[in-house]
Amino acid sequence: MSRPARALGAVSGGLDSLLAVRLIQAMGIELQLLHFVTGFEPRQLRHELAGKAGTAEPPPELVALGAPVEVIDLRAELRSLLAAPPHGFGAQLNPCLDCKILMLRRARERMESSGADFVFTGDVLGQRPMSQRRQAMDRIDRCSGLQDRLLRPLSGALLPTALPEREGLYRREQLLDLQGRSRRRQEALAAELGVRDYPTPAGGCLLADPAYARRLRNLLERRSGVLREDDPLLAYLGRHVLLRGGALAVIGRQHEENLAIARFADRGHLLEARDFNGPTALVEAPADSQDLIAAARLTARYGQGRERERVVVGLGGPEGRREIDVQPGEPDGIGLL
Q1: Rg for the chain, CA atoms, rounded
Q2: Which residues have C-beta within 8 Å of that of residue 241, sequence separation ≥ 6?
Q3: Residue 202 predicted with pLDDT over 70
Q4: Helix axes 134-144 and 96-114, enclosed angle (nearest 10)
Q5: What is the pTM of this model?
Q6: For the segment 83-105, what is each residue's pLDDT rounded down to a tens digit?
Q7: Strand 6-10 vs strand 30-37: parallel, antiparallel, or unpaired?
């Protein structure tokens, strides 16, 4: 070629993607990294919990690799996708196949507009049951439009020859043959390549987390399949309680959550104990009087007035502000999500 080879990396910042970047760098190929934000990453939700607008900065582990990183916001597209993903869900509310296809379509667009030669990922054959089986990988290649311009260097020695290899941009012996769920070889390779700071494997997408998925599924049903922009954060906050009359209460567990829940005041009713420190609670409208009393009792139950006979709870909502005198406790007919 008359110019250096160029590649785009669709990378998360996890160990596998960090290693994939190091392998491509060792081939002498120019890199641009693409980091996709779906809105369901713990890191992004912690960013929003702190009251910061927009998307978080790229993971420092990616920045430390020395290649430029572009953050691509997919939050609106992922919320829409959850209504009916073409390839369905995994064990929870995770549309992994369609999410991966969406990311790689965007990567293909960047590849075509920038003149890059191929796209690579940190995928490992057989590591994830929905998106990293061989059949699923083939479907991703086709549906993303990348075909054989998509390289998975950690498992490339086990996969068919990609177009960049046939064009001589790298040699097959530079690819690895990793497969399966074990991380032992990755951890050994990280030590060899000097990759020391990387997140634990438990820090991925919350859509695969049973507790979070249960909460978000409830919100989806309440919204007739159309999530609001801040619903991913709402599902992340506090205790979610289904009240007997059908209303949803979200009760803060610590100060930062209380502040975040207060930002949802236009959703319904906010409750706080008048004379005792404790949680801020949201009850989504519509809510009948019995559900509001139940939420007030729970607000008192989780605050410092829990041992008192009666607690006065302030209630703000569409009808203005008022106070409810309640006995702290857990009413009958509630369910914890």
Answers
A1: 24
A2: 248, 249, 250, 251, 295, 298, 334, 335, 336, 337
A3: no
A4: 40
A5: 0.94
A6: 999 999 999 999 999 999 999 99
A7: parallel
